[in-house]
Design brief:
The chain has 2 helices and 21 strands. By secondary structure, it is mainly β.
Length: 312
């Protein structure tokens, strides 16, 4: 870990009342893992759905080699008057126009769940509110917003319109202003969960089908893929959809085979400092046993293939 990051981590840990601890991914309980490589620092930042008990916030862990991690360090605590006090979920951080933007889901009593955008000048934060509350439609139950920038440089947020409100979960996209501060148009329906043949109803109820954890990936040959998760035959799985137009508005076709079917999902892709394409997801999907799992991946025949299904 660089001296600068180490000192910052110690400062955050001191605020938490503890020390900086080295550990492996097997030691870290986390859901919805998102890994941000920062080449100029030579470090990887791990974000996810976890915070100290009774203290809604977001933290990060930092590693130079994806094996040994230090943290947690706090990167966001709600400022006084912040609208949400619960369900701090699925933070992911994107570098955009020289700053770091966190897309994260929040909820409060009497308010719909939605994805808000936070901002910082460094990957370790501190992050502060950027958008004025959720960017997702205020009368929708939404979560898991992710950033996508199209070929014209226009930013979009892809997000889930939650199954708890609509039954058949929806995947939607909404254009953003170039400063990522607000929506810049109406949301567009990309697809519904039931359009993927591998998806079955949650808890045996075929009316309840989940869309979860979208992540966009442009392949070397120009194809636009979306990783997303749902449930099939009782198991949490990671699937792939492909835009037949190569554009965010689709149409989207669903590949019949999932890329991970062993009770894991909410995946994302990143490249290591050695250039290796890597899949991150959490597995298993409950019981307090959730861990970040990393897999070598490759683009093949218009989809993502894991190397033997083996973890790094």
């Amino acid at each position: 870990m660089s001296t600068k990051t180490h000192l910052m981590a110690m400062a955050f840990a001191a605020a938490l009342g503890g020390g900086v601890e080295a550990r492996t991914l097997d030691d870290i309980h986390i859901r919805d893992p998102f890994i941000l490589p920062v080449p100029e620092e030579g470090e990887y930042y791990l974000f996810g759905s976890w915070h100290p008990p009774g203290k809604p916030s977001f933290v990060t862990y930092v590693s130079e080699d994806l094996r040994n991690w230090e943290g947690p360090t706090t990167v966001f605590e709600p400022p006084e008057g912040f609208w949400s006090d619960r369900d701090y979920w699925a933070p992911e951080v994107h570098r955009y126009q020289g700053r770091y933007y966190m897309f994260a889901s929040f909820k409060a009593e009497g308010a719909r769940r939605g994805t808000q955008i936070l901002v910082a000048d460094a990957p370790a934060g501190p992050y502060t509110p950027h958008s004025d509350g959720p960017v997702t439609p205020r009368d929708w139950e939404c979560l898991d917003g992710t950033l996508y920038v199209d070929g014209d440089g226009r930013p979009w947020m892809v997000f889930c319109h939650e199954w708890v409100q609509v039954g058949d979960g929806e995947m939607c996209a909404i254009p953003l202003t170039t400063d990522l501060a607000r929506a810049d148009g109406e949301s567009v329906l990309l697809f519904r969960a039931s359009e993927a043949l591998w998806v079955t109803g949650l808890g045996g109820n075929e009316k309840n089908k989940v869309t979860d954890g979208p992540f966009l990936h442009r392949t070397a040959d120009g194809q636009l893929l979306m990783l997303w998760a749902s449930f099939g035959n009782g198991a949490y799985k990671e699937g792939v959809a492909r835009s037949t137009s190569g554009e965010i508005i689709g149409p989207w076709e669903h590949l019949p085979e999932t890329i991970y079917d062993r009770d894991g999902g909410h995946g994302m892709l990143f490249r290591t400092f050695d250039g290796d394409l890597t899949l991150s997801l959490h597995s298993p999907n409950g019981g307090g046993l959730e861990r970040c799992r990393l897999f070598r991946a490759e683009e093949r025949d218009g989809t993502i293939v894991l190397h033997g299904g083996g973890a790094k």
